[in-house]
Queue: 4 jobs
Job 1
Amino acid sequence: VLFSFFAGVGVYRLQLARPCPLKISPWVLLAGCFFLLIAWPHKGAERTAYDMACALIVFPLFAYLSTAVEPGPLGQRLFSLGGGVSYALYLLHSPLGGVLNQFFLIYGRPKGSAILGISFIACAAVFAWLAERYFDRPVRRWLTALTNPKTAPAR
């Protein structure tokens, strides 16, 4: 968490000093992120090298390239939705992956890992949206109401 926070601050300061000159479609960046999610090596030194390269180079580069992107109306709605569910997805993807791994231990690993990966991402995203919509939003509203007392009417 500490590295990603300061990497984000660094990317923010970099784009203030040197705005990104490249205009890339937000859909190309989104497709690149999706490809990275389904294409990683699963074990050993390759996995470690992949994770380090993504964390140190690829993800900060994606963030920097994204500073030059202004999506259209559909893209704005989609990316707002993604931003809204991102925290729930961050919290839920590991437990959901654990359940899936237990399922594999009991019933065996099926063939077609890419399709399975895409299905897992889709299911995790739906669970995250449901959690954000029916749990996180109401709790945030309740906490905001609790911490922002209503002002008395003017007399």
Job 2
Amino acid sequence: SGAAVAKACAYYKIDPSNVIAVHDELVLEFGQLRLKLGGGEGGHNGLRDITKALGTKDYVRVRAGVGRPPGRMDTADFVLKDFSATERKELPFLLDTAADAVEASVSSASAKERCAGLTRRAAWRRASRGRASSAGTGRGRSLDWPCGCRRAGRR
């Protein structure tokens, strides 16, 4: 995936700081989203490949939570398996919010502005759709993006 990203950047003359990678994230529960600028790959082979191809870690990541594999299930098998029936019901909300994150990120002038202004815009959009209007702030440069799931215990 890194080679394709680097080729697209070269062809369209895109600076790596304007790349937005949307990826699965094991450390987040299913339905949680976080926006992150730069940082490590956390063992994610796709991010490692993109970082190597771009020559920098300073690009925006939209991290979509998929949860951890149950028991001793192989990580690769877990992320490649079909979604459960419950997850399939929540998936449209997760994808909608992830798309909002990408859209809001693209419309901002700089990566710093994207991370700072994204939560306000997403909160307004969720409120206008009848969803929760608050978004928490994560640690460092990472922002929590609740997906709007209606399951109890989720934001």
Job 3
Amino acid sequence: SATFKYIRNVEQQKYERGVYQRSLTVSVLMGLMNIFAGSNLSAVFVGSGERDVIALSKTYLVINGSCYWVLGLLFIYRFTLQGLGNGWVPTVAGIMELVMRATAAVLLVERLGFAGASSASPLAWIGACIPLGIAYYLTIRQMVPKQPETTPVKAM
């Protein structure tokens, strides 16, 4: 019946919203951990006396950690589209990632040095999110049936 389909649709939207929110929350928390505790974690692996290495790792982790929310979106978009059988948009996104990483290597490393190289992954994530985000929202819009419009009841 139409009522059952409507209720199922509302429940599905709640579930999707919960997955979306949890994924982004985890991404933000992991990014904050990289930003604020990254130096300490690096020191565990290289030793606290390696100040230059720790400074470079801090640069890398701050740049990457500040964009983990984009990586969270990337995972949601890519895996949702792949799960729905759409393989060509994730492939285009992979090509976009490669182009963005190459662009960062050619343009940013010369100007920004190690910070430019560290920016390659976040730029790749942003570049991949463009086709994935467009395809994701178009796909979701097609999947979710339009809600029945109700006509306002006129007061007498």
Job 4
Amino acid sequence: YRRYFVNNNGNMLSECEIREILKDCDVIAHTSKQNNSKWTMYEELKHCCKAGDLNKIYCHFLCAIKFLHPELFSKIDDMMKLKWHWQLNMCICKKEIFVEYCKFAFEISDIFLSVYNIKNYPLRSAGYIYEILIWGLFLETHNYRVLDMPVKVI
């Protein structure tokens, strides 16, 4: 899990490059667009989780989102049909944006965990949903300027 954002030369972004990039955008993140996936977001999740687990976990996440953010609920269906997603839980942004995301994500998590017994399912299953759905939902519904940057794995 050692990854980092890279510049056009394939080198790790320097602090100077990051500061320059953040003058024109709010968030640096990474998508799966470069992979040319044939799978939708939902199919990607099915690949990462056992199908039965996914349906139960996904249903609980949807209920939590609908309860907390009914105005965002209709966007989820469209997002799940996309053939790309925000990937790897990586971002560089201002502290205020990150704090806003944490509030958004943990608010959903609190409701989710109040009805979902995490001990009965693989722990990573919920993590995949967070990575693929919650971060993307946050970015797609808050009008931030996001720059999709390539990453390199060590």
